[in-house]
Queue: 4 jobs
Job 1
Amino acid sequence: MIYLLDANTFIEAKNRHYRMHNFPRHHKDNFLGGADPWLIAMAKVSGAKVVTHEEPVPPDSHKIKLPNIATIFDVECLDIFDLLEFSECEFILKD
């Protein structure tokens, strides 16, 4: 499947999301009304990773979290510490 970052792809992702999960409608609407779906779409198109403080929730949860949805679209999520390690950042204390 080819993903293009445009309104059609967002609608496709939205429809796929609604079909795949048994989340309460108001949770779906809240998630899809924010920036998270666009972050996931952009990461998918560009091969990027998403950095977030959110933790995945169990499959039986009614909460919708970015890491769970990113996994569905094969988008890797990192936390800030993973990002620092991945970037090979070094912090040097100078006097």
Note: DSSP finds five helices and two strands in the chain.
Job 2
Amino acid sequence: MTPSTAAASERAEADNLGQIKTVLGTDPEAALALVEDGNQRFAAGPLREEREANAVAALSALGRADEAKSRARRFLQDFPKSSLSERVRQSARL
């Protein structure tokens, strides 16, 4: 990947996260769809951790408690030292 391609990918990933944050409070279903899109397009991207935290919040907002808890547990395993861990626990009511 060339430096300009990498920069474009990083901008696109940041834009995706910005869209997620914009709609999370008003349209958690759209936020979840954006998370899944971001996870497909930027599977190893640096913002995956934050996308996953937002996925837990979206699932909780949609009343999908079991899925939120499952995804939160996976988040805590994948990112054990995350600064977002407490937010994820609270979102999923762990």
Note: The two ends are 40 Å apart (CA to CA).
Job 3
Amino acid sequence: MADDLTQEGTIAGWLQSEVEGWARDNKRHAFAPIEYSGIRLEIVKRTDRQLAVTVTGPFGRSFDFLARCPKPNEQGVHVAVTWGNSTVTLYVAGKRVADQKAKLH
């Protein structure tokens, strides 16, 4: 991994809620941000059952993703974002769901 975490890295966490059926209901659920070394991951489950994921910090920018919210397992829903080689990738429940190219100067 590069010494500068803004250029290459991974941030991940589990989405969990005390609300039964949170992943399948039509209510908005905002999760606590996940932060590490200047990288911030913010996730909201929208009323349309999509996860709105914003990661701030990779390549000195912010990236927004939308992904279907899967049924949680006993630990919840795992979300990870990786970045490197000018690409940011979102994984939900172990599946690659979206990529974005960073526009570098």
Note: The mean pLDDT is 93.
Job 4
Amino acid sequence: MSLWASSRSTGPGVKLESALIGLYLVMGAVAFMAYSPTLTKLIASYESGGPATAEFKELSGRSRMIGIILAVLVVAIIVLMVVKPSAV
């Protein structure tokens, strides 16, 4: 039996690792497709009109919400890595 075949596993640990990688990819996609453009617009709005404009306040709220979503994803990944619910 080859080393590759003997080291392959399809148990619950592999499913957990796949879920963690999926969460990581979702987090990266949200950061790249939502947070980064919002932050760019927020900086441009600040430079053009300052923090008192309506556009800045709206973009600030949006960036805060996206940041919270990203933080929740990071915490979920860390908790799942530490607890490893499938190993129990």
Note: Helices lie at 3-7, 12-49, 54-83.
